[in-house]
Amino acid sequence: MTGALQIEALTVGYGGAPVLHDVSFALAPGEVVALLGANGAGKTTLLRTLVGLVAATAGTLRLDAGDLRTLRTEERARRGLALVPDGQSVVAELTVEENLHLGALWRHRGRARTRAVDEIFTLFAPLARRRDSAGHQLSGGERQMLALGRALIAEPVVLALDEPSLGLAPLVVAQLMGTLREAARQRGLTVLLAEQNVTSALSIADRGVVLDLGRIVADAPADQLAADETLRHAYLGF
Amino acid sequence: MTRLFPRLAGTPRVLVVAGILTLLAIGGTFLLDPYRNFQLATAAAYFCAIGGLTLLVGLSGQLSLGHAALMAAGGYGYALTSIALTGAGLAGAGRFVIALVAGVVAASVLGLLLGLAGARLRGPYLAGLTLAFVIALPAVTSVFSGVFRGDQGLQTAYEPVPELLNRLIALEQWQAWVAIGVTSVVTTALALVRRGAGGLRMRAVRDDETAARLNGVAVRRVKVTAFTVSAAAAGAGGAVLCFVTQSVSPGGYTLAFSLLLLVGAVVGGLGSLGGAAIGAAVIVLLPWVLSLLAGSLDLPAELAQRLSGNLSVLVFGLLLIVVMLVRPGGLAGAFGGRRRGPWVRRSSTSPEPAEAPAPASPSPSPQKQFLAQER
Amino acid sequence: MDRLLFLFATGLARGAVFALFALSLVLIWRAARIINFAQGAMALVATYLAFAVTGLTGSYAAGLAAGILGGAAIGWAIERGVMRHAPHSTPLAGVIVAIGLVMVLQSLLGIVFGPQYRPMAAPFDETPIFLGGVPVLSPYDLFILVVALGVMGLLAVLFTRTSLGLQLRASAFAPEVSRMLGVRVDRMVTIGWMLSAAVAALAALLLIPTELGLNPHSTDMLFVYAFTVAVVGGLDSPVGALVGGLTVGVVISLVTGYLGSTVAPIGVLVLLVVVLLVRPGGVFSMREARTA
Question: What is the CATH number of the domain that holds C32?
């Protein structure tokens, strides 16, 4: 499994105004791609379709040449596709440790699982301090750390994240992005990062893909995108 | 129903349609023998109750399993008043009307209390409350047996055919006329509520309480009003039943009967008054048809004994399940009526789903998510 | 005073059964987010099965085992065969389907077994033990308490200390997120139904030998009591089910003892209304799941 993701002619939604229209792009193994666009452009829909929570109307989705569209969400997760969704995804009623165990259940057993949990605690030291706290007792930054750690613990090959910086203080965002970049590089992860925070996303990405009203309007190396003022003004608001 | 009299609209239309249907029904009584007229009268009484129930569940989204008890309240209210008035020397139309009103009021009061208790509850909890309510009814009649005479129940004097019509029609036909008349008034009132602002508010509350509240709808008041109106209709039905059978007792208003009313509402299509009429007919006729069928087979006595009663419940239960799984809109939906009703929740941001629940809804609102795969 | 102690103690035993049944409702609420109105009828089928097996083999234990396994099987069948296909957009649909199931199951039992009350033998003596001349509990009541509390303890361990329990809880709290983490949520829902039905069957099996006899309506009141317990304790709280169950059991026992058994349903209704008006959140519930 290398983590090559292929999206072709993906269309989601009915009737005259589909939410996603003919979206095509690919992720090479180990690439970090920023998925950018204004609110409502379709970033969340794309990620949810990728993971199987939304049904595509047309198009293909392949992970390492295996067709994803015939699989349910939990089977796609077991193929190595992980999503850190937007908003609250930490299971509030479970403890930090239980959340991590939950993420590792299908992948590791027994002692291997405990080791995997400890690895995540090493990666995210603040979480280790809160291992027995319930999800709803964590701060925003801690929750995102937990969500990320929980996604990483199952050793995915493709990691998708939906606006992980939302609602977090700039310092926390910087830390989170740094850890993400490091972890991705170490594990050879392919990353698809949907963000409204364009600067921080492009700062760790190799490439950027811009969505506007459900269509791709740009697909270019990150530094090129960051320098292209017309594009930024037109679609990214600055 | 929209295909009849397309040029009329609103209230006049409802009244005209109701008037015509009533005349048809009364005309129909001449074609039926006494036992059929008795069945017709019973079906009319059920129609009142089922009409109220279908509006309650279909329009305001509140599930009541206790409508039999509300009918019983109507019946007991009618009976007690009728007996008291007979004691005071009153008879005829006056006695009937006053007793009928008393029955409706009794049921409405009970409905109001129940509605108040349940207004803050979500569906299944309200259902459970009404379940406890209908199960407690026999106990109430036993504990206060001085007034309610326990299991025996109360008997009322029957209203004979008025002198003018004495030679033209028999008792059962007369009773059917009275039943049809009361039912007509009650269900027309329900139809007017349904089409009016009240019905609109109820539907708003059913679909999305939060949105309704934000739009200025007094959610609690609407729910309680819906319950009270529905109870009044059930009470009228109960009073009519007592008028037709001249008796009321707890045995006639059991949980099983409550469930039967629900079957009538669901099979006909929740929220549809036409469906309520169909449902009433079904719950009166089907047991009779089944018993004919069972009788025609040569069954050993014990099996026949076990089948009687149980067979119709079995069929009704199956009907309930099948209708809910296959065609939640009920039979009325087959005639081009509204198929949506309470089964499709509208999300404020997603596009209007087609007939079946849509497989995808891009809206991120957590409460209104539809999953892509079936659970 | 003696009477009070006896009523209190038997109330606790009955209450343990109500708590167990209420716990099965909590299980199904957590697994499928519905109040399963058919729970009583499903437990009833399992009880008839146990009755038949005991009749054939002469062994109470065999009957008990058959009943519990039968309950699990019924839970599986109903989830897969019926509930899965019901519209999910509102909870009312599930309730109506459940009611249809009640009608079907009860009438089928009536057709197959008839309306007679069939006495079920208890494995232990049902006459009360006397402590210092005061009647307290019967050996069977003690058995009920031990089994009910024991099973509740086992379930607590299952849910809090095993991987399966973790998956069951996660699937109930956050089904979407659990799917994203590779949890086979549909399977967890089915297991939840099976567990819930087995527990409900056990509760019915414990209770019915203390009544007049097994008949197609044996579990109607049990459902109403358990529902009341769920209201008192909060439908998503196992602790609430336990405390609520014991409370309702004692209250009903006292009402029946001092005011007669016909008043019991009224007592339940009053209790329901009072709790709903005064503390609609339930005593222990974690979330305001029931109010608008």
Answer: 1.10.3470
